What we know:
The chain has helices at residues 3-6, 17-20, 41-45, 50-63, 68-79, 86-99, 117-144, 147-163, 167-178, 184-201, 207-234, 240-268, 272-280, 295-298, 302-316, 319-327, 330-336, 340-350, 354-363, 365-369, 378-394, 402-409, 413-426, 447-477, 490-500, and strands at 399-401, 431-434, 439-442.
Amino acid sequence: MDVDEQEAVQPSQPPPPQQQARNTRISPPVVYVDDNHPFDLDSYISNYTGRAAIDRLTHIVSVCPSVAVDAFTLAVRLIQKAHDPGLFQTLCHAYEQVAAYSNVKLPSISELPAIQTKWTDDTLKKNQSEKMKLEAELKNYSNNMIKESIRMGHRDLAEFSRSVGDYPSALKHWTKSREFCTTSQHVLDGCLSTIELLIEQRNYSHLPTYVFKAEAALEAVTSSAATLAKAENSSGAGGSRKTASAMSPDREILQSKLDFATALGQLAQSNYERAAYHFLRLSSGTGSGGGLGDWFGKLVSPGDIAIYGSVCALASLSRSAFKAQVLENLSFGVYIEQEPHVREMIEAYMASNFKGVLETLGKYNTRHTIDIHLFPHLTTLNSLTRNRLVSLYFAPFSSIKLDRMAQAFGWSVVETEDYVVGLVRSGDIGGRVDSRAKVLQVKKTDHRAELFAHAIKTGVEIAKTNKKLLYRIKLQQAELLIKPPKGNNTGQNQMTEYLLAE
């Protein structure tokens, strides 16, 4: 298996102006569906609803020509059920962009299903009418000076703006609604709705701010509920236990939502270890409650969480941490069962079958690439995983032949040598390569010499410190020190620091 060829996936971004004229001459950043890279579009998209399904289908059209026509058709059907005609323009742009590559053969967009102009005009008129109605209601609420009604007016306008794809207005109204919140529960609901909007918009930079606000509001809601239950219990009223037990599942779901948002924020910052930590701590929803509640389908699927957590963990966690947080994590195991190939990959990793891990990553590269959140980081994550696997394989040996390592990873000897040399130069492997004998050897370290060198260095430092202290004592005996004013030890402290400085 040629692992390097499996990594020919780059983030799908609009080309710079100087390259737009040469689009047909460069290799496209696309993946394909075949026997070696299986992918079931219908099964995949059935896990999502509404705008999440449309956005993912649009992304599939832009990166996977093998199923672009089917994805385009499904997206058109879903767009006609939505309230944002602009989604069709985005879909057409994605299709035309991928069809412009020379080695991609797709039918003309005129041969594909289209949305009628009448539907577009009617939808725009309905949107404008609904917007004017909601704005009039908000103005009426503002004149009456009723805070709760004003908050609900901003909430309705925010949800409407989100449904028509006007994200700036939606964010503005959610922010304004916070000024008219009267309870911590209102603040929490507003923060969660804003986080949901930011995830849908893929605006990851603002997620930490609203997660922090939501966590503070969640603590306030929990504290007030606990205080109320305690008061009911002290007054002898029944049902306090029911109230406490009813709050637990809700809090579990809310905390999982905040952890998921935090994980996406860390993933966007390429902090894969912290992202893995938050993905792996998500509740599975078994028992009395948990999971992501209504976010499943609206934003993400359980299978996505399994892929996010396992891929980030492989790239960043040590072997012991991986075993404790992934293999022995019963809650995350529920998500793993949603994606059988993730289970295969984890079992291969724990069995030190590193070739199997890389083959699984390559085989399901298409499935990972079509994910809108993971796609920009997939190349880096796969590279980090390969580096970690090679380092783990070499760790028990003092020397190993490159042909044996090549056989273990399914590479050629030349590819293995080039890759290992790169790891040695980057410092990931502490060794050196004998190109003639094709052997990787650990750098021999004389621990006895290192111990003596450290002891001598420490002795020299102690001698310098003692010499400075003796010098200070002699200055004090000769009364050559200037005494600072009473109650001010600044000068003395500065003299001590000077004498003890290196």
